[in-house]
Amino acid sequence: MHKEWKFATKAVQAGYEPKPGEPRILPIYESTTFYYDSTDYVAGLFDLKEEGHMYSRISNPTLDAFEKKMAALEGGVGALSTSSGQAATTISLINVCQAGEHIVAASTLYGGTFTLLSVTFKKLGIEVTFVDPEAEEEEIKAAFQPNTKALFAETIGNPGLNVLDFEKFARIARDKGVPLIIDNTFATPYLCRPLEHGAHVVIHSTTKYIDGQARSVGGVIVDGGNFPWDNGRFPTFTEPDPAYHGLRYVETFGNLAYITKARVQFMRDIGLTMSPFTAFLLHMSLETLALRMQKHSENALRLAQYLEGHDKVAWVNYPGLKSSPSYERARKYLPLGCGGILTFGLKGGLKEGKKFMESLKLAALVVHLGDTRTCVLHPASMTHRQLSEEEQRIAGVTPDLIRVSVGIEDIEDIIADFEQAINKAV
Ligand SMILES: *Cc1c(COP(=O)(O)O)cnc(C)c1O
User: Fold this and answer.
1) Rounded mean pLDDT of 346-364?
2) Per CATH, the architecture of 7-286 is what?
3) 47 contact partners, CB below 8 Å, separation of at least 6
4) Topology given in CATH for the domain delimited by 289-425
5) What percent of the chain has pLDDT over 90?
6) Any idea where the domains of the chain sit in the sequence?
7) Partners of residue 365 on adjacent β-strands
8) Closest ligand 1 atom, CA of 186?
9) Is the pLDDT of residue 96 over 80?
10) Ligand 1 close to Cβ of residue 205 (< 6 A)
């Protein structure tokens, strides 16, 4: 890959570079294991002294190509694909944090992530303090403890659609000596590259825009290679690992320490592995990421403007609208567009919203976002259902809130569908 290639070129060309006579398109290496004729070589693979694939729980050539492309697009040094976005969040955090330690996270998170951190991590002995991402820097810093090991947030909050103040979060992470780990699912690297704004690790639910066509659940972790793991706070990176005969990650792998450790400790031991077929689909989907994100963003802005001008609509939230509290920040961090997700509420409220969703003909009511087809969802009764009313309020979920994932159909058809459904509901 040419380092100086621009985004869309990397999206098409990076990751897989066939040699003469090899398949033009990335093959699906549907093989659990790999053939060798030397026991010493395989022993070297086990000891991480040789490079190569050994067993597909740990690495696989199809996954490797997808990971290389994701790392290129986010501007990272390496990546690790996972079986889901939840798996990516889990591994990205337990790679730096263990029982008895602590994480600070923004309160405006995907409902599944909030439950993972507040309920399941607690069972694993990891405590999480949630902070309002709009709070003053000093207030967020006050949530840190001596055992805090990571700061976690989303580029665009789900479903509050608040754009993260990267400058503030990067400064807090730097001052506190912990990595800033960002869920960039809503923005994708086409619209925002958190590593360029001070983040150290980026994760995705590839299930959404990276796949883009609602086919496969998956996730990925990208390592920025830019965190000083030897700052004294991360002994598991600098002290010998007994599982590898006393290997020290920073000393042996340098700026690839984080992603290598995630793979050889946690992917090896827990096995939240992506299938080669999924990696094949994602590697190909990325070829059109730039085109798709342009169209999703353009359609969402048009739909948001239409809804804002509608007298039966109570409110609209989209970071690309001047009325959004995140408008200025979106101009700074999302200059190419704000993606395909918007939220709104109808006059009246919950009852009218339900009738609206059930009256749509083109847009479907599904638990999903980020694919080519326009879809709607009601977070209070669906994705954020497990949260208490107070937790929902903190996460930005009101009872009347309808979340729309705007697809890449012709915008006139999407608007016509919304128009007829609004008129049935209100
Ligand atoms: C969907 C989603 C996840 C979880 O990903 P899965 O692939 O469903 O496990 C995490 N973060 C965000 C922002 C999401 O939208």
Assistant:
1) 93
2) 3-Layer(aba) Sandwich (3.40)
3) 244, 245, 247
4) Aspartate Aminotransferase, domain 1 (3.90.1150)
5) 88
6) 7-286, 289-425
7) 376
8) 13
9) yes
10) yes
